[in-house]
Amino acid sequence: IWLMLAGRGAGKQLCVDTPIPTPSGWVRNGDLKDGDAVFDERGQVCTVLQAHPITMPETAYRVTFKDGSNIDADGEHLWTTLSHRTRKQMTRHGIKRVPQDWATFRHPLVDCHANIVGSVGSQTLTTAEILQTLTHGTRRDLNHCIPTTQPLILPETDLPIDPYLLGSWLGDGSSKEQVIWGHIDDIGLIEMHANNLGYRTERIHGQKNTWKVRIFGLSKQLRDLGVYGDKHVPQMYLRSSVTQRLSLLQGLMDTDGYQGLKLAEFCNTNRKLAEAVYELAVSLGEKPVMKESRAFLRGRDCGEKYRVTWRWNRFNPFRMDRKARRMGEPVGQAFKHGHRMIVSIERIDPKPMRCITVDSPSRLYLAGESMIPTHNTRTAAEQIAWWAWSNRATRWLVAAPTSSD
Q1: What secondary structure letter does DSSP report for 148?
Q2: Half-sphere exposure of 319 (CA within 13 A, CB side)
Q3: CA 264 – CA 256 distance, rounded (Å)
Q4: Measured distance CA(340)–CA(25) in Å, rounded
Q5: Does the pTM exceed 0.85?
Q6: I need a surface site. Which of 29, 150, 177, 281 has the fewest CB within 10 A?
Q7: Angle between helices 187-196 and 163-172 (to 10 degrees)
Q8: What is the pLDDT at residue 115?
Q9: In whole angstroms, what is the distance from residue 169 CA to residue 159 CA?
Q10: What is residue 380's three-state secondary structure?
Q11: What does the alpha-carbon distance between residue 252 and residue 319 come to, in Å, rounded to a whole number?
């Protein structure tokens, strides 16, 4: 026996301009259609069962997270969060990382006699309810967080250029040549990798400790891929497998990245490359932050620069030994770096919004450039219709105050 008690028309809506990650790239929320593929919080592909009509909500809010990302939603939109109390109990019981099943996670609470007296776990709340419980305790600590997505699970793709080699060229290659520059201590790894792929190479001495490797036959491949003279990451690479995306990211980071103590950084004047590094890191389950500032060289303003930083939690973003070893292991703060805190919920002017229904087991799907897990609609009539259609030999009663309701 199922009982659903809900208000009529209680759709859970996001702004129509919210970008939604799909296996083929980004799709605007307002452009999604029934049957489209999206991702859930486990990185698994799920299906849009119904893309509901676009409406204008009575109230709208901007939900902002500690890393600077934000999503516009109505007051009834649902979010599955881990509260301050839940996180405290989890870490107290030795859970050092956000569980993969966090969306349905329950942990038993025991008393001093080892009797189970309850449980603690994730909870699903509306935007308005989170606003009312935004902080916790007398110190007003931030209360709610939403874990990062698991890495997007996609099949191996037949890529025209090896992802690590392409990443290395995008990072430190000449934009109109088949050469990659590097320090004398680092260039050997790129040269060996190219040789193992079957390329013929030539090492050329530059200035001081700088060398370059010419990779014969690479120019034509770069032209065919459309990146020769226009450095960017093609879409097929951004939606390749986990291993391929990590290899591409490592190529970019080994050549043009910096490793601090647990902090990875990519800084470039090419916005398209910085945005690609951000997207790659997010798609691998990390929590990067991208900021803009001015680039100066010997006091001369060289225009905008883009800096992407994150503390790695799932994958070491470096393959080069000296950089990979310096990063170390994500210990101590692994739980913290596996979620985003909600820092504010502000009222904004209403704007066109819509909700979607997905078939993920948790009812979650990813939204926004940061791929934040969020809840789909629980509109009563739609949900009952789906259950009835899925269980043909059943009978259902829908009751409301009036016949029109």
Answers
A1: P
A2: 23
A3: 11
A4: 23
A5: yes
A6: 177
A7: 140
A8: 80
A9: 15
A10: helix
A11: 10
